[in-house]
Design brief:
Chains: A alpha/beta, B alpha/beta, C alpha/beta
Number of strands of chain C: 15
Number of domains of chain C: 2
Shape of chain C: globular
Oligomer: heterotrimer
CATH class of the largest domain in chain C: Alpha Beta
Number of helices of chain B: 11
CATH superfamily of chain B: Thiamin diphosphate (ThDP)-binding fold, Pyr/PP domains
CATH architecture of the largest domain in chain C: 3-Layer(aba) Sandwich
Number of strands of chain B: 9
Order of helices and strands of chain B: HEHEHEHHEEEHHEHEHHEH
CATH topology of the largest domain in chain C: Rossmann fold
Structural class of chain B: alpha/beta
Strand order of the largest sheet of chain C: 3-2-4-5-7-6-13
Helix content of chain B: 25-40%
Order of helices and strands of chain C: EHEHEHEHHEHEHEHEEHEEHEEHEHEH
Strand content of chain C: 15-25%
Distance between the termini of chain B: 33 Å
Amino acid sequence: MIVRQEKVIFSGFGGQGALFAGQLLAYAGIAEDLYVTWIPSYGPEMRGGTANCTVIVSEEEIGAPIIRNPSAAVVLNLPSMEKYEPLIKPGGLLIVNASLVPMRSERDDIRVVYARATDIATEMGNARMANLVLLGALVQRTGIVPLETVMIELDKHISDRHRRWLEPNKEALRKGTELAAAQ
Amino acid sequence: MATEIRIPEGMELVYEYPESLAKKDTHYCPGCTHGIVHRLIAEALDDLGVRERTIGIAPVGCSVLAYYYFNVDFVEAAHGRAPAMATGIKRVNPDKIVFTYQGDGDLAAIGTGEIIHAANRGELITTIFINNAIYGMTGGQMAPTTLPGMVTTSTPTGRNCALAGYPIRMSEILAQTEGAVYVTREATTDLASIRKTKKAIKRAFKVQVEGLGFSCVEVVSTCPTNWNLDPWEAMEWAKENMTEYFLLGTYKMTDEVKALKV
Amino acid sequence: MAKELLEGNVAFAEAAVRFGLRAYFGYPITPQSEALEHLSKRMIEEGRVFLQAESELAAINMVYGAACTGVRVMTSTSGPGFSLMEEGFSYIAGSEVPAVIVNMMRGGPGLGNIQPSQGDYFLMTKSAGHGDFHPIVLAPASIQELIDMVGLAFELAEKYRTLVFIAGDGSLGQMMESAELPPMQDLPKERPAWAITGAKGRESKFITSLYLGAENLEAVNLRLQAKLAEIRENEIRWQEYETEDAELLLIAYGIVGRICISALREARNAGLKVGLLRPQTLWPLAEERMAELARQVRGILVAEMSAGQLLEDVQRAVAAKTSVHFYGRLGGVVPMADEIVDKLRELDEETH
């Protein structure tokens, strides 16, 4: 039996929104009636200065919420790239914020999407939306949850303080999917 | 059990147990003033008509068995923690009258943190603090309020403040907290001071009945047994020595408290 | 109620509100302060009692006071705060009043760190304070189980008039998972008959843990021991996974228990006949079942985030009927499923 499941690490500097992007995927997973866990910077992957979380979205009940080898990694900065690129499972997916990561993966057993997410987000008016550009790319490539569900959950969980950024955030997600589809 | 008193014909009863006091024989030493203060508390509870909604918290020390002597509901606290327990009880039972009965080791040493924070929060509780400058139950060791030079079983050559620190004045400290509305130091060293103490205790409970804030009555007391004095000498000694360091008087009384009729 | 994404600390706090928590007294400590923060808002909204105490020592004694008056009361903390509360635990046990304490364990000893750990197993199951007593210790492995165990904890605490600990760890407190909260319960109108409520229309009474006279205190202790025996008889809980044909047995609780579910799946895929016993109560512990399974399997692997605390109880329970191996990570390091699988392979080879 093939289980619909993704184990994703989101990692970046504090403030880049890695934890929120992970939560949004988790919310979407619940909306799709899947089992979900989200766990922040814990276990051997802990490292000062970066914020990361592990999200598991699965059709089957989740065992370990903390994993060594993710099926996908979303890296928002260079330290995260150096740390998680080697750990991705063969056949897995790497989403790179090419604006801040000036290197390319040399692995030939994983799929890689390079997105100049910070530049794209800056052009759209707020560099902090880079996380959603990358989440859009992840969703497009894995198909673990529909983009529409992510949009609905974004609407539900965006804070009042950031609500005026709702439409631009949705646009960022869309840009990410388009970009991933084109690569 | 205390024996029932029969009143001979032609005589009348002028003195009896307050309802808030249980009819039990005492375990306190001859000349100990715990019994006096117990009675003053019981009279105050009777006067205010709150016996049936009062919960007392017994300390660790000589008065650890205080719950045997009161005809009110009681709980027994860990050493020094009575004000925390009282906080827990009063917060979930705001209609109850909650009081702690604590000695100097309990309140001024191991439980300093709890009493200061309870007072500072303005917990609507009443604390009766017995200060006799010694640890009675454990056999006469130094208390936080033991006077300079005073001989105890753990200061055999007299309290040397350079080594053992200075006697702590709790009423003065508690009076500094915003939450306390009534803090007074009284004594049981003679009839006049006992009468004054009674009034202070009643006022302290009245403060709680009216929900005005934290109230505390410190009572300068004696310990004839561990002071190695007879009861009379102990009272005299306390008057001459204790009240010189621990000045009697009211350290805090807000206008609202002052206005209470006692 | 539908499933939501809930953080462990918020989940147990909200569950407590819905299960009728009347008062919470606590002191902030990582990794569980989110519970205190959540309750600072929710308890006030519901017109109940929330108080941030000046220390864990004061907090547990506030819990003790409130518990004496027969209401649902709890506190939560982590290792260093838990140590400070031990005095209160002993008095609560000696006075036989119900109280619930959540311990989200972190790395120790001393200040240690704020990463997940299971180093307080001995403290919770065997040495929660001076004197002879055992609290009931519940060990959830998921946010859902954590929520459900809050309700169970209150029930057991009241049924036996005892302390109940919920043994979580930093990862369970901080992680989010899909789970369902219970509906809001009404607060009970009546207080239990034993509660201290003021001597209105009845004789005055008291609650104490002081019994002068050796024979008196021995009698009290014998009664407490009889109660513990009853708890042992009725309240042992555990879950088994694929033990029917197991040749190797994993034993682990809490977050490590669920990591072992992943290890079990991996090991089964690799052809190892592995089963898992996950204790849901650490005291009392499923010792008899462990002994039974010990006769069936070639070897046992105990996995913990400690230097081997549950291990000692497993060794005692199985009494050398089978080989018992151990895998522990310390200081906040969480064991990975693949490390446990490697250990299972070693155990398999050594016992062939």
